[in-house]
Amino acid sequence: MNDFVVSLMLLGALSSGGSLPFWALANSNGIMPANDGGLVLVQASKPFDPSKTFQWQAGASLAASYVPVDMNDPGSSPLHAMVDELYAGVRWKVLRLDAGMMHRDREFTGAAPELGSLSVTEGHIVESNNARTMPGYKLVLEPWAVPFTGGHLLLDGIWGDYKTIDERFVKGALVHRLRGRITFDTRHHFYASLGIDHYALWGGAPSDPKYIPIDVNFSNYFRICTGRSASPSGSRSDQMNCLGDHGGAEMLRLGWRDSAWDLTFQWEKPYNDKSGMRFNNIPDGVYTLQWGLKDKDRWITDALVEFHYTMWQSGTLHEKETDDEGKQIDWHSHKSLNIFGLDSYFNNSEYKSGWTHFGRSICAPTFFTGMGNGVRQIVNNRYRAVHLGLSGKLFRVAPYKLMLTFSDNYGTYSKPYIYPSSIYSGWNWWEPNTIDKGLKQFSAAFTGYVPFKIAARHTLDLVYGLYADAGEVLPRNFGATAGVRYIFR
């Protein structure tokens, strides 16, 4: 196998509104400029060699975006350089260690993995490729057959720690990640998986001195990893709940493998506290169904439909807690209470930047970001959406991807996009069974490339993309990208 790959891409972007449409930016690793301009991307990588028992990999990716100078800010620079990836890793059998800055795993890809996933979440609602990478490490257990199960029971997982490097409310916040999955595989057609994907923000220096920082030491790291509350020196909130900002998702996947095609169903449910982990937030989640041919050289090879629903969030109320005599307890002064409702996925009252990096959501890009409480954070975590993805090869040669996303967006419980009292008199956000109104949004994309073989190990691709937005959250906008990509393998 060729064990070294180098690529160079030059890409230009233009839109009718001056800022690029949703799908031109979403899940682009956070390197696409938000406004009209250009992008240069240089990548070099050495992948694992599966023919060897002990393997190693390494890679680097450098990006530079160009955006014309804003006349309102003439001192700004039109060029912005960044490190996209810089990593190395080793693998022995099913054990792997990666260190550095790496793209996240993509699932539900179509005719060409280079075009990305057909899914909005890319198979992981907690960690898509919507935001810039973070430096860190991860220990990986690849699918491992449990002894004495005949290869029918498999375990896999990830343990990792990272550091945020952007400007945020808690500067230098650390991230602890834990992902685990158990799979029952008949080894013929059917398989089923259950998994959990958990993250915790901790450490760092709050911008506001009234917030108590979390000391980075082994004791607090143990508390973060085990979901324990803070010591008496921690904040009141961390003493009542878990130390740091915890969240994640629980996953169920069912699959059927045929000789010519695969069919996969996945339900992934986010959570932001114990109530979500205990399924109080059902029916929230992302429901994905993908059908894909194994022959990837057809006009249509993969089709995906996805339904998103995050409206319930364990309810509109915190559960009323009472003592043994039936008297209500003030939960602010009592650390043993379970608090339900108003989960506000991927947000936190102390880590105010929430689950974002460089201003873009680390989770699915449909959790829109914006300014709130003086910082950039998730401002839309209550929404419902239907998404369609289609992939194949035009003329059985040129890979393409079609993305159509229809959504109804409500903002958050505490800050809805449309404050309902202006429409329905007497509406209060703390009352159950509230009525509110969302903002409609439609976003579309048609992307692909035309490959040209120019030598035995040299390929030149013509890369293109067409994008559109229409609705009440994002303005009506049309955009296009075009460029060339040279690849040496």
Overview in brief:
This protein is mainly beta and 489 residues long. It has 4 helices and 24 strands.
Strand and helix layout:
Elements: E1 5-15, H1 22-25, E2 37-46, E3 54-66, E4 79-92, E5 95-101, E6 136-145, E7 153-163, E8 170-171, E9 174-185, E10 190-202, E11 205-206, H2 218-226, H3 236-240, E12 245-257, E13 261-271, H4 274-277, E14 285-293, E15 302-309, E16 356-357, E17 360-361, E18 369-372, E19 375-378, E20 383-394, E21 398-409, E22 439-455, E23 458-471, E24 477-488
Antiparallel strand pairs: 1-2, 1-24, 2-3, 3-4, 4-5, 5-6, 6-7, 7-9, 8-11, 9-10, 10-12, 12-13, 13-14, 14-15, 15-20, 16-17, 18-19, 20-21, 21-22, 22-23, 23-24
β-strand amount:
over 45%
Helix content: under 10%
The shape, in one word, is: globular
CATH topology descriptor: Porin
Structure description:
By secondary structure, the chain is mostly beta strands. It has one domain: Porin, CATH 2.40.160. It has 4 helices and 24 strands. The chain has an 18-stranded antiparallel beta barrel. Strand 18 and strand 19 form a beta hairpin. Residues 320-324, 331-338 and 421-433 have low confidence and may be disordered.
